[in-house]
Design goal:
By secondary structure, the chain is of the alpha+beta class. It has a six-stranded antiparallel beta sheet with strand order 5-10-6-7-8-9. Strands 1-2 form a two-stranded antiparallel sheet. A hairpin with a 4-residue loop joins β8 and β9. α2 packs across α3. The chain is globular and about 50 Å long.
Length: 302
């Protein structure tokens, strides 16, 4: 009986040490969970050893709990501090009620620290039925031609009949070790500032330019120049394709990087930082204008 009485206490102790958790519900996304719990997609992915944004109903996610203190030294920036501690610029700003990115020597910051899961811990079981690829067309006002619909099976005849054309290819080329994906994750949480292009802040096209520069590919500076420079994607998109939007309703004025499985990364002027979001969002469907492929990136992949 004494052992039985102790067991509930041990269970409670283990749960307390494990930190807060969240059980995924139907309709949840990493972005919605991060927003609800005042954290970021990057922190949730690193904390739970997630290689992509796919979630399963009932999956239990660890939420961040730990904070550490850092005294600002000469040369420190919010971005460099965030990278050092495995946190994000936005999380540090929220934790310390900072409105900007200016720091003072000797200033003491509370850093929301990510407890990275060790490689020995198994990653969550992937969804056995991942969603299909996202069409490059979406709600493009100048839609791409649709694939030819399958033809009914021909009647037996002496002459061979053409086989039906293949259906839209699925987004099966997702690779969490893709070099571009690894670079994008480094930028999550970096502040958005219109016209900026530095390690302290970027705008949408500067984010794209800097990410591609880190893998040795030069792209133009502005979203309109990037739109004009590359070929239109036909069919399903691949990791690293550029996705373009028109918030103003006329010309191209926003760009992001497609990461696979329906999500893209971009420097979001509304969220004021680099984030990962879904292309299926009604807002982005409405302003989406098309996708372009950087062939130099495709040439680098086997």
């Amino acid at each position: 009986m004494r052992i039985i009485a102790v067991l509930p206490w041990l269970v409670a102790l283990v749960l307390a040490q494990a930190g807060p958790t969240y059980t995924v519900q139907r309709g949840d996304t990493l972005f919605s969970i991060a927003k609800r719990h005042d954290t970021t997609v990057e922190i949730l992915m690193r904390l739970n050893n997630l290689s992509d944004a796919t979630l399963n109903v009932g999956q239990v996610l660890q939420l961040p709990t730990q904070t550490v203190q850092h005294t600002v030294q000469r040369g420190d920036t919010l971005f460099s501090i965030a990278r050092r501690y495995g946190s994000t610029v936005q999380a540090i700003q929220q934790e310390n009620n900072l409105e900007g990115t200016t720091l003072s020597l000797g200033q003491v910051l509370r850093i929301p620290q990510v407890r990275v899961v060790s490689p020995s811990n198994p990653a969550p079981t992937p969804n056995p039925n991942p969603p299909g690829g996202v069409s490059a067309g979406l709600t493009n006002p100048t839609p791409l031609p649709n694939p030819t619909p399958p033809q009914p099976a021909p009647e037996p005849a002496p002459q061979p009949q053409p086989s039906p054309p293949p259906s839209q290819p699925l987004d099966t080329d997702y690779d969490p070790t893709h070099p571009l994906i690894l670079v994008v994750l480094k930028y999550l949480g970096l502040p958005y500032v219109f016209g900026a292009s530095s390690d302290r802040a970027v705008d949408c096209s500067a984010f794209v330019q800097q990410v591609f520069a880190e893998v040795g590919i030069k792209v133009p500076r502005t979203s309109r120049e990037q739109w004009a420079a590359f070929s239109t994607v036909q069919g399903a998109m691949r990791q690293g394709d550029l996705v373009f939007f028109s918030f103003g309703g006329r010309q191209i004025d926003h760009v992001g990087i497609y990461l696979g499985r329906g999500v893209f990364a971009h420097a979001n002027s509304y969220g004021s930082r680099v984030v990962i979001e879904s292309l299926d969002s009604p807002f982005y469907k409405r302003v989406y204008r098309g996708a372009k492929r950087v062939e130099a990136l495709s040439a680098q992949q086997p």
